[in-house]
Write a structure and sequence with these properties.
Layout lengths: L7 E7 L6 H10 L6 H8 L8 H6 L11 H17 L2 E8 L1 H4 L7 H13 L4 E9 L3 H4 L1 H9 L5 E5 L10 H7 L3 E5 L5 H9 L5 E4 L7 H10 L2 E4 L1 H6 L11 H7 L3 E3 L4 H4 L3 H10 L4 H14 L5 H23 L3
Helix pairs in contact: 4-6, 6-8, 10-11, 16-17
Length: 333
């Protein structure tokens, strides 16, 4: 079974962490970031680094606020979507912060959102866009993102990311006002109480990572009652230190508990992976192809799609391809 060719759905990929390294080198040169190539690689990649959550977050520092023009923003959006498509992603929900992408240029958040959508659409895959708020910058520091949400129809959902030691509560009135489906990074760099807060207080339909929740039966039961989906990013979670390795990853616990979950890349440029790599590593760790298909179908069920008809069309395409591939494998010789 060719995992790269099989259709997949990805819900958790950051545009900020999806920039091709060669493109980044070119961009750094154009914007006067005068660092040796090896140093650029070291400061934007987890390869060879010891695991650590804050260390992982530090890899974003050079990526943010570097984009000097609309053309550059459209280009990195196109390349991110193109790379996903080459990896067999049929539908991608790409999350990004208009605040970060428009910083150097001084662009309006609304314009940045339109540029990202225009660039990504050229790749020809199914797309949804999620607006990311950074906890660390507060509500005021994310104002261009709010203006983008109020001034365009680009986004189908909201995300809250960043250092979990910073309270999410200040964002609650804003999120309630915006009235879009919510996914929140929780239970990655922080404890299980953050997962509970995301579900109970924010009404999050999806949790980014959330792996610390799997050992708390009450939170697991709450997730089941609320039909919450967990966007797992195993390689990223190993690199942040949440999990030790694939065979001991908490995702195994999610399987045992029958929680809705999917596989995602998070930040493919930082982690050095694609979605097919995640599926391949899961298979090598003992996940069956049936379970991998189930993860992709879970993602479809949890996607922030505009209609039930869109969801059903996507489900049929993915399910048909996976069943056909499995049939080739199990056919008698």
């Amino acid at each position: 079974m060719d995992l790269r060719a099989l259709p997949k759905v990805e819900l958790h990929r950051h545009l900020e962490g999806s920039i091709r390294f060669e493109t980044f080198v070119e961009l750094a040169k154009e914007t006067g970031l005068d660092l040796p190539r090896a140093e650029l690689r070291r400061r934007t990649s987890m390869k060879g680094e010891a695991p650590g959550f804050l260390r992982f977050l530090s890899k974003f520092e050079l990526y943010r606020g570097l984009y000097p023009s609309r053309e550059w923003i459209e280009r990195v959006a196109f390349e991110a979507a193109e790379d996903a498509g080459r990896d067999g992603v049929l539908h991608l929900e790409l999350r990004f912060s208009p605040t970060h992408f428009g910083r150097r240029l001084g662009a309006k958040g609304e314009d940045v959102a339109d540029w990202v959508r225009r660039g990504a659409r050229r790749a020809g895959i199914g797309l949804g866009f999620i607006a990311t708020y950074g906890r660390d910058f507060g509500v005021k520091g994310n104002e261009p993102t709010t203006r983008a949400l109020l001034g365009t129809d680009v986004f189908s959902g909201l995300d809250l990311a960043g250092n979990e030691s910073v309270s999410a509560r200040p964002f609650l009135p804003l999120f309630k006002r915006l009235k879009l489906p919510v996914t929140i990074h929780a239970g990655e760099g922080g404890g299980v109480e953050n997962v509970r807060e995301a579900m109970e207080t924010f009404g999050a339909r999806r949790i980014g990572h959330g792996v610390r929740a799997f050992r708390d039966r009450r939170v697991v039961d709450l997730a089941k009652r609320m039909q919450v989906h967990f966007e797992l990013c195993p390689t990223s979670e190993i690199q942040t230190g949440v999990a030790r390795d694939w065979k001991r990853h908490p995702a195994w616990r999610a399987r045992e508990l029958a929680l809705s979950c999917s596989l995602n890349t998070d930040d493919p440029s930082i982690s050095g992976i694609g979605l097919a790599d995640e599926y391949r590593r899961a298979r090598n760790a003992g996940w069956s192809d049936v379970y991998l298909e189930w993860c992709s179908l879970n993602a479809i069920g949890a996607a922030f799609l505009p209609s039930a008809a869109d969801r059903e069309r996507l489900r049929r395409k993915v399910s048909s391809a996976w069943r056909k591939a499995r049939g080739i494998i199990v056919a008698p010789r």
